[in-house]
Design a protein that fits this description.
By secondary structure, the chain is an alpha+beta fold. It has helices spanning 22-32, 47-55; strands at 5-9, 12-16. It contains two helices and two strands. It has a two-stranded antiparallel ribbon with strand order 1-2.
């Protein structure tokens, strides 16, 4: 899937993209469907989150 997680909050949809390169694909899809893009906010993974992910076998 293109988005790792998608949630809806009223009239807004929040899409979480895991791969940086996929951000532009999502933006293109939004524009092609005449939807409004409110913001793009980069998220940083904490060292603690990365450690837990590695221990659980996620990477």
């Amino acid at each position: 899937p293109l988005c790792d997680h998608v949630s809806e909050d009223g009239h807004r949809i929040h899409a979480y993209v895991k791969e940086y390169k996929d951000v532009y694909t999502v933006i293109d899809l939004i524009q092609k469907n005449n939807a409004s893009l409110v913001s793009v906010v980069p998220q940083k993974q904490s060292l603690e989150d990365l450690f837990v992910e590695i221990v659980r076998g996620g990477k």
